[in-house]
Amino acid sequence: MRIEYTDHQEDPAAWADELGISKEATDLYLHSDVLDLHVDSFIWNRIWGYDLRKRHGHGLLGARFYSQADFPRILEAGVTGATWVITTNPSRRASVRARVFRKNLERLRNIFGTVESQFSLVRNTAEYRKARTEGKHGAFVGIQGGNALDARDALDTIVDDMVLRITLVHLSNSSLGTTSSPANRDTETGLTARGRDYVAELNRRNIFVDLAHISKKGFWDAVEVHDKSKPFIVTHTGVEGVRPHWRNLDDDQLRAIADSGGTIGIMYQNDFLGPSRFDGKASWVVDHLEHIVQTVGEDHASLGSDWDGAIIPPKDMPTCLELPKLAQLMLDRGWSPERIKKILGGNFLRVVEQLRG
Description:
The chain is of the alpha/beta class. It has a single domain (8-106, 139-356), classed as Metal-dependent hydrolases (TIM Barrel, Alpha-Beta Barrel), CATH 3.20.20.140. It is 39% helix and 11% strand. It contains 13 helices and 9 strands. Strands 1, 2, 3, 4, 5 and 6 form a 6-stranded parallel sheet that branches. It has a 3-stranded parallel sheet with strand order 7-8-9. Strand 3 (119-121), helix 6 (125-133) and strand 4 form a beta-alpha-beta unit. The protein is globular and about 55 Å long.
């Protein structure tokens, strides 16, 4: 199967006019590696058969909650790579969760297998570079909710190092630790003994420990036991220095990630970014990126949209198709092309190469 889409490399000026941005911004964007640390579109394929290979509009809710990304729009948007996420259902028993994960991983691989002329599953930077040389999108795989594989020996179900990263906890507490969600009333636990062992095992396997969603105590517990020679990441978050919120990271957490050599992906949920749930602006994303740059430097800021993860994105950037607007907003702040290229994808590739080559 070959996916049809508009290749904006053929007429960058027309794309710039369509988006209301400069040709300088589209040229910079189109000559960059553009990688997203967290795309959750596969969840809707599992729930109601949302076909990732078909082009969708804004859906029934105007690109709120879902219908923000699919394969044709990802290609048209010039997103050269992304981490496609398998999200865990915490209501299942541990033994069942492991079996369901294996089934979902096979399902996702099969979907990518039907479009292998344009998408390639990749495990490291070398494989991503090979995919790009062949004109393909490089698709990494991640897990949201480490309890997908918290049963005894369940991590052994990961074959060929296909999983790049695991978000330890999601929106509920688990055998691994406690969530940052306000629903959590456990202020004492943080990371459990099993969670500490889990971090050590991920380190051993060179799987990224992703500390999005975890409670602050759990965050610091994980930092304590994490292999100091390896980077860890937070794939989709905001920062408290711009928007105080239970979901966002404080400056000490930013410094810990930077000290490990890791990177922080800024997500696009309006009320994590600013004061409005429905009237957000793409400039709010850049506000958060700017705070990271000012606090820990330009080598530690990345993009982690959470597209289709039940988010309500900025009104002027409702889907992946408007992503080049971020390049324009960064240029407007006087940022160098080198800094912008790092944030669009270079920082994430550096971190992946540091862990996996």
